[in-house]
Amino acid sequence: AAVMSAVTQTYLLVLAQNFTALAGGTAKTTPQNHAAASFTCKRLPIDNAIDWAASSARIFNLIRATGHPYSGATTTFAARSLTVWAAERIPAKSYVGRVPGRVTEVLPGKGAVVLTGDGALLVTRAQIEGGTETCAAETLDSISMTLGR
User: Fold this and answer.
1) Distance between CA atoms of 3 and 67, rounded to whole angstroms?
2) C-alpha angle with apex 58: 131 to 135, nearest 5 degrees?
3) Which of 4, 86, 101, 125 has its C-alpha lying 20 to 30 A from 139's C-alpha?
4) How confident is the model at residue 33 (pLDDT cuts 50, 70, 90)?
């Protein structure tokens, strides 16, 4: 089972604290101030696509923001969709001829190191299209792979 997110835990706490008032119709309500309201666009699947040429921080934050219980960050691998569920930030190494998306190390039981625009990330959990979520080292098992192509 996936770990419950902090947002979900907080939502359940607030619901438990207010359930009686909500169920009884006595919960305090506050009308929305439409003059101060803001709008956003609906997220589309393309919004979760990883641009490996972006910074490690940006990619790491995308992976965190779209992880469970959401749909995950996506990339391509061998003409198939790959969902990246989790990653860790790691110290940057200097690479000559940096190729963003290139797998540079496979760490069995831990994951795979993937180059970004300014460093690298350790991709720890991934899921190939049609497969199950696993340790990324099981899917990204060769340093001759490049993601996003």
Assistant:
1) 11
2) 25
3) 4
4) very high
Instruction: Please tell me what DSSP assigns to residue 92.
Output: -
C-alpha closest to that of 106 among 136, 127, 78: 136
Q: What is the pTM of this model?
A: 0.76
> How do beta strands 103-107 and 80-89 pair?
unpaired
pLDDT in tens, 77-110: 989 999 999 999 999 888 888 999 999 999 999 9
d(CA 119, CA 137): 19
Neighbours of 8 (CB within 10 A): 13
The rounded Cα 140 to chain-centroid distance in angstroms is 17
Closest CA to 140 of 117, 119, 118, 110: 110
